């Protein structure tokens, strides 16, 4: 046991999943520490776009419930976007069907409709969804946690059994591959380009006939352009040729993007798994260990629903 530990819950992992889980626990009265290898701004979550949308992750029924609960939270947070980084923004989901969307969303998205030809050159949906500026949202989550009495420490965990707390919540994302260990966790590489915003106020997501993605998300005075989804690729170095292709695909959707000044490049490794692992695991020494990882590119989308379920498992 770690003699320095004073909290009764340690959440391992400082991305959006770990922070949201820690916030829920702290606001329920538990003493919480977050142990994170990287500063909050250096996690994979910091690279996210980040648009709320139920990406196809398993188990499907649980993912739908997690996503809709998170939608409820984001809608409330959008009342103060300057503080939380969450805004409700309109845009087009290309190649998405209205019937399929209504099947999972029900009446939760009242403005959902088929996109017009003027809005999108193809079949798509017009929707008003939460768009989260992670440069604002992650620091806000950190403040919310510390305001609730939580503590964040930069430290590396090499073995979950060595974490000296009666309750441990594993939110390590891709790190779970080695830490658990869980070989089913694998990277899906995503590359983004950040450019000056030429005046766009809506977002768009599109998938070409060749399977290549193009999307742009407006955040304050910048646009986040994407993207890629390269399975089992570990490189975090931006590829100039890929960046040029991303800008070209996005400019095909909105020509004014072609001349936007490039501000930076980002690469993140999404922690993919065949199914999200959200469960309580018995330990030989009687401690509580809860796993909450494997969300792939849907971490932001399901963060609050998963956080509440994980907190429940940790404290039952």
Descriptive account of the structure:
- By secondary structure, the protein is of the alpha/beta class.
- 29% of the residues lie in helices and 28% in strands.
- It has eight helices and 15 strands.
- The chain has helices at 16-27, 60-77, 81-84, 98-105, 134-147, 176-179, 240-253, 299-315; strands at 9-12, 32-36, 86-94, 113-114, 124-132, 151-154, 167-170, 186-196, 203-207, 213-219, 222-226, 230-231, 262-272, 277-282, 288-293.
- Strands 3, 4, 5, 8, 9, 10, 11, 12 and 13 form a nine-stranded mixed sheet that branches.
- The longest helix has 18 residues, at 60-77.
- It is globular, with a radius of gyration of 19 Å.
Which SSEs are present, and which pair or pack?
Layout: E1 9-12, H1 16-27, E2 32-36, H2 60-77, H3 81-84, E3 86-94, H4 98-105, E4 113-114, E5 124-132, H5 134-147, E6 151-154, E7 167-170, H6 176-179, E8 186-196, E9 203-207, E10 213-219, E11 222-226, E12 230-231, H7 240-253, E13 262-272, E14 277-282, E15 288-293, H8 299-315
Parallel strand pairs: 1-2, 1-7, 2-6, 3-9, 7-15
Antiparallel strand pairs: 3-5, 4-5, 8-11, 8-12, 8-13, 9-10, 10-11, 14-15
Brief write-up:
This protein is an alpha/beta fold and 316 residues long.
Could you state the order of secondary-structure elements as H and E? EHEHHEHEEHEEHEEEEEHEEEH
Extract low-pLDDT stretches. 1-6
**What is the averaged pLDDT score?**
94
Please describe the biggest sheet, giving its number of strands, its sense, and whether it closes into a barrel: 9 strands, mixed
How many helices? The count is 8
Principal-axis shape: globular
Strand content: 25-35%
The total count of strands amounts to 15
**Derived structural class:** alpha/beta
Q: What is the CA–CA distance across the termini?
A: 22 Å
Radius of gyration: 19 Å
**Helix share of residues?**
25-40%
């Amino acid at each position: 046991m770690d003699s320095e530990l004073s909290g009764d819950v340690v959440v391992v992992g400082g991305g959006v999943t770990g922070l949201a889980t820690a916030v829920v626990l702290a606001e329920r009265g538990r003493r919480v520490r977050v142990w994170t290898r990287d500063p909050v701004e250096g996690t994979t979550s910091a690279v996210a776009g980040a648009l709320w949308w139920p990406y196809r992750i398993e188990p499907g029924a649980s993912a739908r419930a997690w996503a809709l609960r998170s939608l409820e939270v984001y809608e409330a947070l959008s009342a103060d976007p300057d503080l939380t980084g969450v805004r409700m923004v309109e845009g087009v989901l290309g190649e998405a069907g209205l019937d399929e969307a209504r099947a999972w969303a029900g009446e939760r998205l009242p403005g959902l409709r088929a996109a017009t030809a003027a809005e999108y050159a193809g079949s798509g949906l017009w929707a008003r969804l939460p768009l989260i500026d992670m440069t604002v949202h992650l620091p806000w989550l950190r403040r919310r946690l510390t305001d609730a009495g939580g503590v964040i420490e930069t430290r590396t965990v090499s073995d979950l059994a060595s974490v000296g707390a009666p309750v441990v919540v594993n939110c390590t994302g891709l790190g779970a591959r080695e830490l658990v260990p869980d070989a089913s966790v694998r990277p899906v590489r995503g590359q983004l380009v950040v450019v000056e915003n030429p005046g766009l106020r809506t977002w768009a997501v599109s998938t070409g006939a060749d399977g290549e993605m193009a999307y742009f998300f407006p955040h304050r005075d910048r646009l986040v352009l994407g993207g890629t989804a390269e399975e089992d690729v570990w490189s975090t170095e931006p590829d100039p040729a890929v960046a040029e292709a991303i800008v070209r695909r996005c400019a095909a959707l909105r020509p004014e993007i072609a001349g936007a000044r490039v501000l930076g490049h980002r690469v993140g490794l999404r922690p993919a798994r065949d199914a999200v692992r959200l469960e309580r695991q018995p330990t030989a020494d009687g401690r509580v260990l809860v796993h909450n990882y494997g969300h792939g590119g849907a971490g932001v989308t399901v963060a609050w629903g998963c956080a509440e379920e994980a907190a429940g498992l940790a404290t039952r």
